[in-house]
Amino acid sequence: MPVISFANAKGGAGKTTAALLLATEVAARGKRVTIFDADPQKWISKWHELPRTCKGISVVNQISPASITEQITQASETSDYVIVDLEGTENLIVANALSVSDLVVIPIQGSSMDARGGAKILTLIKKLEKIVRQDIRHCVVLTRSNAAVTTRAMKAVQDFLSAQNIDVMMTPIVERAAFRDLFEFGGGLANLDPKMVSGVEKARENASLYAAEVLERAISAPKKRWYNVFRRAS
Known about the structure:
By secondary structure, the protein is an alpha/beta fold. Helices cover 46% and strands 15% of the residues. Strands 3-2-4-1-5-6-7 form a 7-stranded parallel β-sheet, sandwiched between helices. Strand 5, helix 5 (112-132) and strand 6 (138-145) form a beta-alpha-beta unit. The longest helix has 21 residues, at 112-132. The protein is globular and about 50 Å long.
């Protein structure tokens, strides 16, 4: 089953939110999801421990560079989707996870710092493609965007990505209170009360369109064979 990793070499790019939104949307469709929480902050693990849970989602946070590819491979045999939230640095866990991913999603905010962090992951993907001798499909999702206006910084990032012929998703993740509240209260967007949280319906629409676009790419990507950069390097 598809393995989808989220990576950006700069923290705070909206990576964990993008990963959790996809997981909860997929689970809401009745699919089994395994999330590998490789981010040192463990926000998804903390979300999973909240009283309000999402049926069909399991979270793994005990991960090492030597074990992650085998763990991902095993999870893909029992889950409909495997989602990996990687830490905001370049290391062997990141490299090994990317090497067995069917799709790598790179979240980027409208800032030059985020764009540079994303560029580091794109460079790493190119290096890994030479090692594994196969393409690693990847795309960019713009995050924390303003629903009403496109800022000059966001426009600059869009122009930069377009000039590099990078696949940019049509659906950005808009800045919404409902997305932040998931980490406070647990569960998915379906569990949030529109009377208590503003903009829930808009958030649900945004998340649904975003998830559909990610899944279309992941399902159509060629399936990756097992690989471990750590073991090859040792």
